[in-house]
Amino acid sequence: MARRSDHTREEIHLMALEAAEAIASQEGLSGLSARKVASKIGYTVGTLYLVFRNLDDLILQVNDRTLSQLYQEMERVSAKPKKPEACILALSHTYIEFASNNTARWSMIYEHVLEDDFVLPAPFQQQVQQMFALVENALRPLGKNKSDREIAQAARALWSGIHGICLLALTRKLDIAGIDSVQDLADTLTVNFLNGFREN
After folding, report:
1. Is residue 25 a contact partner of residue 104, using CB atoms and an 8 Å limit?
2. CA-to-CA distance for 146 and 153, rounded, in angstroms?
C-alpha cells in the first residue's frame, strides 16, 4: 500500500468515494460511517473531513456517482432507434435492472435524508433532470398536442409509478400480492398509462 504522503487530495477523494460505495454495497446506508471509510483507505477521519465537508457531503457525492451510472445506462438504451412506446418500456426495464443489481446504492439515494433547509447541489439536481428528460423525449411524439409542462408532469407521474413498483419489489412487499414478474407489472402500468396519455 502506498504511503499516505504518496496520495494527492484528488486521489484521497476518489479512494474515499470508492470505499464508501463498496461499504454501502455490502451494508447499505445504515452501515456507512466516516470511521469505516477512513479505516478502509488507511487515513484518519480528520483527513477525510479535509476532503469532504461532512458525512452528508460524502454520501451525496456517492449518490451522484450512482445517478450518473444509472443515467448512462438509460441514455444508452434511449439512443437506440425504436418507437416511443418501446423506448419507454426499455427505459423502465433498464431502471428496474439497475436497481435490482445495485439495490443498496440505489436505495441510498432515497434513504438519505437531509435537513429541510438543505439545497441539493446543482450537479445532483441536473442528474435527476437529465433522467426525466429521457422519459420526456420519448413521451413527446405521443403527446403532440401537449405542452412541455404537461409532458414533464406525465414523465414524473409515470416514473413515480415505476419507482414505486421497483421499491415494493426490492423490499419484498409485492410477494404478498402474488406478483412474480416486476417487469411485467411495470409494463402493465406503462402500457395503460400511455394509452390514457394518448387519448387525453
Report:
1. yes
2. 11
72-80, Cβ contacts within 8 angstroms, sequence gap of 24 or more:
73/98, 74/98, 74/131, 74/134, 75/130, 75/134, 78/134, 78/137, 78/138
Task: List the domain range (segments joined by +) for residue 34.
Answer: 1-52
Instruction: Specify if 58 maps to a domain.
Output: no
Amino acid identity at 118: F
Residues 88, 139 contacting (CB under 8 angstroms): yes
Tell me the pLDDT band of 123, cut-offs 50, 70 and 90: confident
Calculate mean pLDDT across residues 125-135: 93
Rounded to whole angstroms, the Cα distance separating 5 from 130 reads 39
Locate 21 and state its grid cell: 460505495
- Is residue 27 one of the residues assigned to a domain? yes
Asked, for residue 47, whether it belongs to a domain, the answer is yes
At 174 the pLDDT is 65
92/163 Cα distance (integer angstroms)? 9
The three grid cell numbers given for residue 9, joined into one nine-digit string: 487530495
Say what percent of the chain tops pLDDT 70. 93
Tens of pLDDT, residues 183-192: 889 999 999 9
